[in-house]
Amino acid sequence: MIRHTHYDLIIIGGGPAGMAVAVGAADGGLKKILLLERHPRLGGILNQCIHVGFGLRYFKEELTGTEYAFRYKQQFEHSGTEVSTNSFVHKLTPAKDVTFVCPEGEFLVSGDHVVLATGCRERTREMLTTPGTRPAGILTAGLAQEMVNIHGLLPGRNVVIVGSGDIGLIMARRMTLEGARVHAVLEILDHLSGLVRNKIQCLDDFCIPLFLSHEVLEIMGKDRVEGIRFRDNATGEVKDMNCDTLLYSVGLIPERDLLMDAGIEPGNGYHVAGNADYVHDLVDWVSKDGEKLGRALRSA
Amino acid sequence: MVRMTLNVDILIIGGGIVGSCLARELAKYHVNVTLLEKEAELCFGVSKANSGIVHTGFQSDAKALKTQLAVRGNALYRDLARELDFPFLPIGELVVAFPGEEKGLEPIRKNGEDLGIPGLEIVDRTWLDQHEPNLSKEIRCALLGPTAAVINPYETVYALAENAVANGVRIEHEAEVKTIERQGTAWKVMTSRGLHHARYVINAAGLYADRIARMAGMQVPAIYPWKGEEYLLDEHAGRLTSRVIFPLPRKETKGVLVIPTVDGNTMIGPTAEEMFNPEDVTTSRAGKHWVVENIRRLIPSLREDMIIASFAGLRPATQGGDFHIQEDKPGFINLVGIQSPGLTAAPAIAEYVVDMIGNHVDLTLKENHVASRKAIPRFRVLGTEERNRLIRANRDFGEVVCRCELVTKAEIREAIRRGARTMDGVKFRTRSQMGRCHGAFCTMKIMTIMAQELGIPYDRITKRGKGSEVIKT
């Protein structure tokens, strides 16, 4: 149960961006800060990132995502922020009233400042309207990551990755390490979408081919994915490939639906932090940007 | 695995909208009824991909059986929706005329008035500007049919089935009919799950109705599936129109429509393509372009990036075009070619068939029949007070599982307790996974609840039945 009905600052989302805003705001002198997190614990998507590559810029050492979240949480705890977990915000008003649902009920709380630190979501097969059937075995790379890293479930055995975003590259390696065969990464653009270091460490080191300028034309299979038809847009050649699973890594969309639903633009006390603002390539920048944003906030 | 033989009075083959209406109607009487469905859950065949329009009936030939039944069905839906607590929005429909087409509306109105359809009116450009501002300014006038409505096909089917079961109907899932033989005065029906002896068989097998009839030694009109692709727009696009919009009908279909759904978004489609494979429900690039182009003619502001989902379904069409509803052999009623307006007609088809049976079988009403059924509470449409009342009674209502559609853990659990056995079954009953993340955020949460509720491991959870396991082992 939350302690007040009005706060200097309400932060929506307890991932790296939300925690960073709280740290910065406390540093800058704000006292009454509330952070609302929909999951049982803080850390956001870092909690399913068990690979290394985090923290070199912020902590000056290489950490896993979970380690980064753990380290940052310790810092966050000094900010004196009130945290309400299992709390799902679903409505905002221009007057900065925030409505959230938790197992104790639906509550309304208001703030001088409200920061959306709601991260991003993945584009899906449906958003691309890839033609073909709708069988089991089509997932976003991030969902596959949650299945493997949090639940210990391997969603497929013969995998094709659509799109060369970072999560797709990371999952190409992870699926291989867990015993699946990753046949290819298909990228419609003529260049890699993710970080070069991820291509080297996740594809090249595991002999997984990356096909650029390749477009998926059709998904096949009645109940389970059986294969795909794709085209090399450079040569026009069309080919089929058998697989039982497709992981989509075709872009991330900042989650600002709460503002959109309410018809509110950022400003007048509303702020957007982290990947909800724009998709950052390193979490280190999310932490630094979030702290900066937090420090600049002044109580009304 | 063959179980023991079951003796029933009436066996319904097919658990779509028609079979479910029949089960619900027959459950009012002292007869022993079993419904067979070959898929893992009801409404996984033709009805799943239905547009959900309860038509007025004015677009069909007044002499056809299907038209009579559609007009009657439209009237029956109002009571049905109230009794069974499923969403029913009587939003009305418009058939729009572009320059040169104005004269085409009058025959449709005449047809509708002959059928006794109330409230028909031709509305002019000024009316359209006031009531449907997103429609193309090219459109001159339109025929308004105020009795048209929209429903959600699966919620309707599950409501009907729950009520049928509450009144004693048995439902067998994954029970595919293998053989049918006449044995004395009974029909012997072998399924993949067991043997039934039935006094009456009602064949409501949709795309497979002609095969089922042939299996029992009857010749009925052959089914030529027509595929339709539909495209769903993001809720952010809002309702583009307040009513269902039809262009002037052409020969093969009613054309590409704008359909405001019961859930607040807009659906556009369908295409119409003859198929030779009753399992081909693929969508295509060409289909999407065709739909978008045709709808832009009606609504110029439509943008392709408003689309968030697509699917395809098959209409169980016959060459004659009308419904074939006949007792082709004693005790065996075939329902063949129940395509559009089949969803509209379904409650009337059930009445019609029960009358046919009543000519031969003594049907007496049950005194203890329960006519009503309550829906699973829909957290997302409730006010704060009501939400807090639910949460106080059950903390699971305070746990949001599907964030895009605001679906709580309590709703997911209740859907499973009412019969959902697959991810799609949960989706169709609760709207979870239907929003803009397409299940990326809630799939694991739902799987965890299913594993707990059903007592099964993760690797036995399927998208829509055997062979569609989410986790490939």
Summarize the structure.
The complex is a heterodimer of chains A (300) and B (473). Chain A is 26% helix and 30% strand.
Description:
The complex is a heterodimer of chains A (300) and B (473). Chain A has 300 residues and is of the alpha/beta class. Helices cover 26% and strands 30% of the residues of chain A. Chain A has eight helices and 19 strands. In chain A, strands 1, 2, 5, 6, 7, 8 and 19 form a seven-stranded mixed beta sheet that branches. Chain A has a five-stranded parallel beta sheet with strand order 10-17-11-12-13. Chain A has a three-stranded antiparallel beta sheet with strand order 14-15-16, with no helix packed on it. The longest helix of chain A has 13 residues. Chain A is elongated and about 60 Å long. Chain A starts with 5 loop residues before the first strand and ends in a 5-residue tail after the last helix. The model of chain A has no long low-confidence stretch (mean pLDDT 97). Chain B folds into three domains: 217 residues, FAD/NAD(P)-binding domain (3-Layer(bba) Sandwich); 145 residues, D-Amino Acid Oxidase, Chain A, domain 2 (2-Layer Sandwich), CATH 3.30.9; 82 residues, Arc Repressor Mutant, subunit A (Orthogonal Bundle). Helix content of chain B is 29%, strand content 23%. Chain B is built from twelve helices and 22 strands. In chain B, strands 1, 2, 9, 10, 11, 12, 19 and 20 form an eight-stranded mixed beta sheet that branches. At the A-B interface, strand 7, strand 8, helix 3, helix 4 and helix 7 of A face strand 18, helix 9 and helix 12 of B.
